Amino acid sequence: MQATVASRWCEAWVATTVAPAIHLCVVTFVREAVRRACGRGLSGRRCWRRLRSREASVARLPLPPPRTMSSLPAAPEREIHNPSGLARLVRDLLEDVFSAVWIEGELSNCSRPASGHLYFTLKDPTAQIRCAMFRPKSTWLSFRPTDGMHVLARGRVSLYEARGDFQLIVEHLEEAGEGALRRAFDALKARLAAEGLFDEARKRPLPTLPRRIGVITSASGAALRDVLSVLARRMPLVETEVLPVPVQGREAPAAIAAMLAAVSRAGRHDVLLLTRGGGSLEDLWAFNDEAVARAIRASTVPVVSAVGHETDFTIADFAADLRAPTPSAAAELLVPDCQELVRRLAQVRQRKLHLLRRALEARSQHLDHLFARLGAQRPAARLERAGERLEALRHRLVARIDGELAHRAGSVSHFRTRVRAQHPAVLIRARAGQVASCADRLAAAMNTSLTRRGERLAALARALNAVSPLATLERGYAILFEQESGRVVRAAAQVGPGQGLRARLADGELTLRVEPG
């Protein structure tokens, strides 16, 4: 009912707004948009608001006057559009209605020009769609798209106006099929790892030599034949029990988990081998089941996983106590080689015999030593050893006395030499020589000092004579003194008429009187 009402509202709006030439096309797209919107839970009024938002782009086109239900023209006018306007209108309608779609198909015509954009075609047996993925999203891909690859794309439907080509603008691209399985595998692995299901601390050690091995696999698979062949060749004494389960298909995970639980409850086996041959990711998907992983961890018996080839990894490999690259390698890890055990036993036997011979030789040498000690403890031998020791001590004592006497004689000679060197006559002779040497040195020093001082006195006398006033008087000058005060007359203004003066000459003095002048 809601879809019908919304459709009528939209058709009425189209009939009064959109040109008659594209009326039918727009109505078709409107009905499809309303159907999709109602399928997504949108109300009719919300659809109406979305369509009204597109009115602005439609209004740019040259449209005839709006028609009403009461006044219809007798003959509709022909509306003419240019290609760019029509292409723009169709593009807007496509992008509004198909804004986000998922599409799965096969890649073809892949090309990546220098711009970095990715252009390709998605096709199926009956149709194909041109696609474009622009930078930088085209550079974020985790794989390299190639022709023939099956992919899953998300994008929006658009129209390339320059050529009028219908195309898909891709925003996300991933591998379909195995790619989806790989994502599910990674998600389950991350979740179980976060729970600690793969922790190394939870791994159980395998028995060194198991007595009974349970092989959980397909009864008709080649992996079982390889395992049994290797076990029979390496250790025929080990009992091997085949526990058949389907290893592929929908019923395989439940059957494998049930078998693991049953074997764990029985407790008859020392170790379990969960194995199958190689295959694609889909073929091995039974071993990527969460129930199988939890059954492996819940088992009370250690579990070895050998699924697929060396490069194949499954959730069971991470949950198991030990992962083997191949079924044959798993069989080699479970049991030792009997031939190798025989060689090791022979080596142990040789080592034991060698150790026994060495122990017997050591005991024999110890017995010989005890016999020698017993013979050495006889009384005659003890007396002989005591006499030899006494003779050695006598020699040591004589040598010690001779050495002490020689040392004391050397000390006496040394003291005698020192006493002779300290005799008074020797000391007096030594002191007399020192006194004579000192007297000679003193006389030489006095003569040198007197000579140096005489020379200095003569130099001082010459210097004094050079500045002496007497030398000036000898050149005919005289010094006048006041007769009464004895002051030196330095200027004529100091004396007056009749004043007495004394004139000092080089060879005596004269008494003078100042005459008035």
Commentary on this structure:
The chain has 517 residues and is α/β, with parallel strands linked by helices. 51% of the residues lie in helices and 16% in strands. The chain has 15 helices and 13 strands. It has a five-stranded mixed β-barrel. Strands 7-6-8-9-10 form a five-stranded parallel beta sheet, with helices on both faces. A three-stranded antiparallel beta sheet has the order 11-12-13, with no helix packed on it. Strand 9, helix 10 and strand 10 form a beta-alpha-beta unit. The chain is flat.
Give a short overview.
The chain has 517 residues and is α/β, with parallel strands linked by helices. It has helices at 2-17, 23-39, 44-53, 55-59, 83-97, 178-194, 222-234, 252-266, 290-298, 315-319, 327-334, 338-376, 379-421, 424-467, 469-474, and strands at 101-111, 118-123, 128-133, 150-160, 165-175, 212-217, 239-244, 271-276, 303-307, 322-323, 479-482, 500-504, 509-513. A hairpin with a 4-residue loop joins strand 2 and strand 3.
